[in-house]
């Protein structure tokens, strides 16, 4: 939804802000100081709730695969402009009280009041507001922005604030561990407590002695990798938030640690083990029954590299490539290695399994506001929060699309004033917040780290006619980010004048002010490309000047102000089209409808973008219809080629190049206090050298952290496949895989379905099988010119109910096949069904089956479907799986994944794309649903935007199924998010 926000009672947000600023910290009420506020969105005398229309809705959330009800609450109250998806997420995730009980929340009013009243009361108690009128303005403005989805706090706020639970408001934690057994065991305990509360934690293990060093007793140390096993097992057992999602954790090791090579290769070796076990028939998918037999799968691993190491990697001479690994206690060099060789191991492992990521230590600490209190040595699990050990950060994100004006420009003055209200509320939260451990509580209260950020950047860039990978797009993103952080620090300085700077500021004042000047200087280097980013940049420049001046006088209330988080569940809460800094997922989306059901539509951002680019209504309608049919813009009627890039997405026909993601991160990083949660996607055919180039460029461009994901590099994801045949398609293959998904051989035109009966004499085969101890027979008959035509299943004693049901089922399938229903449709529908009998089989190609139906249709697919079709369904024989492993791991760069040269259709490198973002968008401007993309018209085959996109592009996406509702999740930063129920795979 693209909603323009005005400023009631004022046409000049910037002038009003300037007036308010002059009266900051004014003495009132007997000399007490507090903020003097002016209204932004609200009107005096009118409560925000009275300005909107409310309606009652029934929230019934089901597993779309089997129809079971996961959650039900009827009669909940929401504004009429909130989407069904946002309503479902908030009701199921954030309403407190036992479902069906008298204390259960049933209205968005109750939820917002619970949170806002707590913040307001704490603000009054701690002297944040000058007068009662300012208190009311704060309360109303916060309520209005939450009600209208302008911003959202991170999930722990909605879970805990205003309830009887501990008032935990932070989602990001950093722990510490020392080289003692007491400290290591305490690490396990603290991490478990954080996981239990639904949050994630990261830490650096580099203080622990390596396996190449001696203990005081004379023995050899175990090394940090050995202790990672225990922590990994703990995380896998506790999971997160009471088994609703996997634990989120980050493990970091310095590049000069003597055990660095073992650490780097740890997850890659486990990935090899996973492949072997999978080929033996074990269930090794993410969340599978047998995946727990491998280790180190619950953490993201990162190597902390120094400038010294990266310079050695870059050195022209062999002497320059040498690098020393140092003892943990003495700091002496105990081993010298070739830096390029070690860097090669890092990039090889990342190519194989996406771990380890990389963190640039010197860059991180060069932007550290509190170096006198300790170095920054680790991050939270998604790498956006980086500060002192034993600390935490609470997050909030603004919806950038809410600041898009009717004329297609970004409303910078209104955005700046909104940031002031949000950052004020975030700081107030630390006054009443609870923390999982005492050290974290002490550090957080002393440094008051905050993480304001945004969502919907990708949608905003498209709507304003900017390509994500363009100078204009990066300039606008940098200007907005600079303005956000500048305003946040300015308000932090103003708060320092009202309620005092953070406790650790005095000893770190020089360093903090130096970092603020670095931010301001970076702002001066941004070059305006167009009129919109120029206006934002001009305001940002003024703001940074104010920030430096006020900070020199007052100091700062917060050691950190901003991060760019994944904005997973809260992005759905705000009806955001894209999360965090991500580009759009695709040009077609999956939308839930009021009253149940769903449809596939073209993003509403598309017509807005076309209008911004100067297209007329007739052209816009034609282009939108083309996108609805094909899923992309290539060869769209009337669309100029120079505008294609505006519609590039994370996935699809025109996907953004890996370096495009890196360049966007580099553009905004100088204006972020912390870092950026983002994974750079790479195609499956990318090489180890490509990974190395990404990691080196990340260092040279000034990023703080970087992680990559090469498509299909993990076994613990659904197998992907391309349905395009090598060298056999026409030159017009660019019309998209969507058409190929539903393509069929030419046939005479008929007016209705025609049954093609089998001849009296036809070839057939019978297969005996055993599934979970149950024995049966499968007989299949085919047409003489090939093609399955009938199925007979013998299971159970003759005359029994089971035998009768199986006979009837066999007849139904056989008649359907003869009327032309594709065998692929039956296989897709009946594989993965779960019911007894299930378990081990006697078939070497299908070792484990989740039901008899699952086995039967996998067997039929192996016997009657070509390898290209089976690849898309993830069904391979044992021999084919062995051939894939041999091909993928026989050389450094991945070869085609086919069984032999004749199977080039399987080749296409089994590509997928992972850097996706959520989107539920309304229909095109007319209000009528737009055409459903070709290949996606069967709504029963899709339960999310990810699955819809699979049907459009003809490839499976590397994404796990949601543990709660079974919907295929989509990537969000370094995590995965479920559009169906809002669950995440880690980050809140």
UniProtKB/TrEMBL annotation:
The keyword Nucleotide-binding applies. It comes from the Bacteria. InterPro entries: RdRp_reductase_class-2 (IPR050862), RNR_2_N (IPR013678), RNR_lg_C (IPR000788), RNR_NrdJ/NrdZ (IPR013344), TSCPD_dom (IPR024434). CDD domains: RNR_II_dimer (cd02888). It is an enzyme of class 1 (oxidoreductase). Catalyzes the reduction of ribonucleotides to deoxyribonucleotides. May function to provide a pool of deoxyribonucleotide precursors for DNA repair during oxygen limitation and/or for immediate growth after restoration of oxygen. It catalyses: a 2'-deoxyribonucleoside 5'-diphosphate + [thioredoxin]-disulfide + H2O = a ribonucleoside 5'-diphosphate + [thioredoxin]-dithiol. PANTHER family: RIBONUCLEOSIDE-DIPHOSPHATE REDUCTASE, VITAMIN B12-DEPENDENT RIBONUCLEOTIDE REDUCTASE. Coiled coil: none annotated. One of its GO terms (biological process) is DNA biosynthetic process. Its EC number is 1.17.4.1. Residues 170-709 form the Ribonucleotide reductase large subunit C-terminal domain. Belongs to the ribonucleoside diphosphate reductase class-2 family. Its cofactor is adenosylcob(III)alamin. Residues 759-863 form the TSCPD domain. One of its GO terms (molecular function) is ribonucleoside-diphosphate reductase activity, thioredoxin disulfide as acceptor. Gene3D superfamilies: 3.20.70.20. Residues 1-29 are annotated as: Disordered. Residues 59-149 form the Ribonucleotide reductase class II vitamin B12-dependent N-terminal domain. This is Vitamin B12-dependent ribonucleotide reductase. The keyword Manganese does not apply. Keywords: Cobalamin, Cobalt, Disulfide bond, DNA synthesis, Nucleotide-binding, Oxidoreductase.
């Amino acid at each position: 939804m693209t909603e323009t926000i005005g400023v009631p009672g004022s046409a000049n947000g910037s002038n009003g802000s300037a007036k308010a600023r002059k009266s900051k910290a004014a003495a009132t009420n007997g000399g007490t100081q507090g903020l003097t506020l002016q209204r932004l969105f609200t009107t005096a005398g009118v409560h925000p709730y009275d300005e909107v229309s409310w309606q009652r809705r029934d929230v019934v959330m089901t597993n779309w695969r089997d129809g079971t009800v996961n959650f039900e609450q009827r009669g909940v109250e929401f504004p009429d402009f909130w989407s069904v998806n946002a309503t479902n997420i908030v009701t199921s995730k954030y309403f407190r009280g036992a479902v069906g009980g008298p204390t259960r929340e049933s209205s968005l009013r109750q939820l917002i009041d619970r949170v806002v009243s707590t913040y307001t009361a704490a603000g009054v108690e701690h002297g944040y507001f000058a007068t009662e009128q300012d208190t009311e303005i704060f309360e109303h403005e916060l309520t209005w922005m939450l009600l209208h989805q302008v911003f959202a706090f991170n999930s722990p706020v909605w879970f805990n604030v205003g309830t009887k639970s501990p008032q935990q408001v932070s989602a990001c934690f950093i722990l510490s561990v020392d080289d003692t057994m007491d400290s290591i065991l305490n690490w396990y305990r603290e991490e478990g407590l954080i996981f239990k509360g639904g949050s994630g934690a990261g830490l650096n293990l580099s203080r622990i002695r390596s396996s190449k060093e001696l203990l005081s007793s004379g023995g050899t140390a175990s090394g940090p990798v050995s202790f990672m096993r225990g922590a990994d097992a703990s995380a896998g057992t506790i999971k997160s938030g009471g088994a609703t999602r996997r634990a989120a954790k980050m493990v970091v090791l310095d590049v000069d640690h003597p055990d660095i090579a073992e650490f780097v290769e740890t997850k890659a070796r486990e990935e090899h083990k996973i492949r072997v076990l999978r080929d033996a028939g074990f269930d090794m998918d993410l969340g599978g029954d047998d995946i727990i037999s491998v280790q180190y799968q619950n953490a993201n691993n990162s190597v902390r590299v120094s400038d010294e190491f990266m310079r050695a990697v870059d050195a022209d001479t062999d002497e320059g490539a040498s690098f020393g690994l140092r003892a943990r206690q003495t700091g002496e060099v105990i081993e010298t290695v070739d830096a390029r060789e070690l860097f090669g191991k890092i990039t090889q492992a990342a190519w194989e399994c996406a771990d380890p990521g990389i963190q640039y230590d010197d860059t991180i600490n060069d932007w550290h506001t509190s170096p006198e209190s300790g170095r920054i040595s680790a991050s939270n699990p998604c790498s956006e929060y980086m500060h002192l050990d034993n600390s935490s950060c609470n997050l909030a994100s603004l919806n950038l699309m809410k600041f898009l004006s009717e004329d297609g420009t970004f409303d910078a003055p209104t955005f700046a004033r909104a940031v002031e209200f949000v950052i004020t509320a975030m700081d107030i939260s630390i006054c009443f917040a609870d923390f999982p451990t005492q050290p974290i509580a002490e550090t957080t209260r002393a440094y008051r780290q905050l993480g304001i950020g945004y969502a919907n950047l990708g949608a905003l860039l498209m709507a304003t006619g900017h390509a994500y990978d363009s100078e204009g797009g990066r300039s606008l993103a940098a200007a907005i980010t600079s303005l956000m952080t500048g305003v946040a620090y300015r308000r932090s300085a103003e708060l320092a004048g009202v309620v005092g700077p953070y406790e650790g500021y005095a000893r770190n004042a020089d360093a903090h002010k130096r970092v603020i000047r670095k931010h301001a200087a970076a702002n001066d280097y941004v070059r305006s490309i167009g009129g919109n980013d120029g206006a934002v940049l001009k305001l940002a420049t003024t703001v940074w000047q104010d920030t430096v001046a006020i900070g020199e006088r007052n100091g700062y209330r917060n050691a950190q102000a901003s991060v760019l988080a994944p904005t997973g569940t809260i992005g759905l809460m705000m009806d955001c089209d894209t999360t965090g800094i991500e580009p759009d997922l695709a040009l077609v989306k999956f939308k839930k409808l009021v009253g149940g059901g769903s449809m596939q539509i073209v993003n509403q951002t598309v017509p807005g973008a076309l209008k911004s680019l100067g297209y007329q209504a007739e052209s816009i309608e034609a282009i939108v219809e083309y996108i609805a049919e094909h899923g992309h813009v290539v060869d769209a009627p009337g669309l100029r080629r120079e505008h294609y890039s505006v519609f590039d997405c994370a996935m699809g026909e025109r996907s953004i190049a890996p370096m495009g993601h890196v360049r966007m991160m580099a553009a905004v990083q100088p204006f972020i206090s912390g870092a950026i949660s983002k994974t750079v996607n790479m195609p499956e055919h990318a090489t180890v050298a490509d990974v190395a180039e990404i990691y080196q460029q990340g260092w040279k461009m000034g990023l703080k952290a970087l992680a990559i994901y090469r498509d299909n590099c993990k076994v613990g994801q659904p197998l992907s496949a391309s349905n395009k045949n090598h060298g056999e398609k026409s030159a017009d293959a660019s019309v998209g895989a969507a058409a190929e998904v539903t393509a069929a051989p030419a046939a005479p035109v008929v007016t209705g379905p025609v049954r093609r009966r089998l001849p009296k004499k036809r070839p057939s085969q019978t297969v005996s099988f055993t599934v979970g101890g149950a024995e049966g027979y499968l007989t299949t008959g085919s047409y003489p010119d090939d093609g399955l035509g009938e199925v007979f299943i013998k299971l159970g004693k003759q005359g029994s109910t089971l035998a009768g049901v199986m006979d009837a089922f066999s007849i139904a399938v056989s008649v359907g096949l003869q009327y032309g229903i594709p065998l692929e449709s039956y296989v897709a529908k009946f594989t993965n069904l779960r019911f007894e009998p299930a378990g081990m089989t006697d078939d070497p190609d299908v070792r484990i089956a989740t039901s008899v139906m699952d086995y039967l249709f996998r067997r039929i697919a192996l016997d009657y479907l070509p390898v290209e079709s089976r690849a898309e369904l993830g069904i391979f024989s044992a021999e084919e799986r062995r051939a894939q492993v041999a091909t993928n791991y026989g050389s450094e760069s991945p070869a085609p994944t086919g069984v032999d040269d004749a199977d080039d259709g399987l080749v296409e490198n089994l590509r997928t794309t992972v850097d996706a973002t959520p989107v539920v968008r309304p229909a095109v401007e007319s209000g009528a649903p737009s055409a459903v993309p070709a290949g996606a018209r069967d709504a029963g085959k899709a339960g999310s935007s990810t699955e819809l996109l699979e049907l459009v592009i003809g490839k499976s996406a590397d994404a796990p199924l949601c543990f709660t509702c079974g919907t295929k999740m989509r990537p969000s930063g370094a995590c995965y998010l479920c559009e169906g129920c809002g669950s995440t795979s880690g980050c809140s």
